[in-house]
């Protein structure tokens, strides 16, 4: 068992795909398969169950994941202790939404690359609501997420930005815009409960907005669709398919703000705190620890982005 084998194992354990791991590690599929087979022989346990439906990790794989992550973290710590920060090497898997990629991560990753030029950054994109689960499973080292109210002491957070929530209405020529045309903000609330809404499918924003709607209207509004990803919701509202409540940062980054009537909600809803998230034990890994230090430095400088 060597460090390279453990890296290959962790990649397979995350992706549950020999093909994807082979591509990420620049190996042949047969080389990945042989590596996993050798580990299984050394441990005397199967690491993955494979059938026509796909691959699943066994309990032995979950136990090995903990050991492998600790061994790789210890190795990086040793490398760092024997040299300066610029010699730090490794891989950092960051999961975030498309909006976070160019609005929040740009200054952070620029500073991180300058401090740790030999660390390879693997950017994984998707719905930010999936970020916490990916960190929990170990599919990503770090995720950019809306910070949940409580997740105990097992997770660490580093704030990146705060952004208020806003009400978004379509301006495109459609039945919805006709129903809203000429109404003041005060008058809007008398009809919004009767209009179709596009709502988040999961995550912090789903819980927050669902609770707000129950308190704001006498009956539950019509739900046109529940959609994964704030970016998709912005697009659907701009097409006249419904109204929505969204983080202002997402609306501003969408390029669709001119297609929307955007109304600040003030104190009706709390601001979103967008943060880095990682499992607390992983902060001993110098690669992740370095990202936290850079983020904390930006937080106290003018580079921190605040959604307005």
Molecular structure report:
The protein has 308 residues and is an alpha/beta fold. The chain has three domains: 1-82, Orthogonal Bundle (Arc Repressor Mutant, subunit A), CATH 1.10.10.10; 83-161 and 272-308, D-Maltodextrin-Binding Protein, domain 2, CATH 3.40.190.10; 165-268, D-Maltodextrin-Binding Protein, domain 2 (3-Layer(aba) Sandwich), CATH 3.40.190.10. The protein is 44% helix and 22% strand. It contains 13 helices and twelve strands. The strands form four sheets. The chain has a five-stranded mixed beta sheet with strand order 4-3-5-12-6, sandwiched between helices. Strand 1 and strand 2 form a beta hairpin. Helix 1 crosses helix 2. The longest helix has 23 residues, at 59-81. It is elongated and about 70 Å long. The termini are far apart.
Topology:
Elements: H1 3-15, H2 18-25, H3 29-43, E1 48-51, E2 54-57, H4 59-81, E3 90-96, H5 98-103, H6 105-115, E4 119-125, H7 131-137, E5 142-146, E6 155-163, E7 165-170, H8 175-180, H9 185-188, E8 197-200, H10 204-216, E9 223-227, H11 230-238, E10 244-247, H12 248-254, E11 260-264, E12 272-279, H13 286-299
Parallel strand pairs: 3-4, 3-5, 8-9
Antiparallel strand pairs: 1-2, 5-12, 6-12, 7-10, 7-11
Helix pairs in contact: 1-2, 1-4, 2-3, 6-13
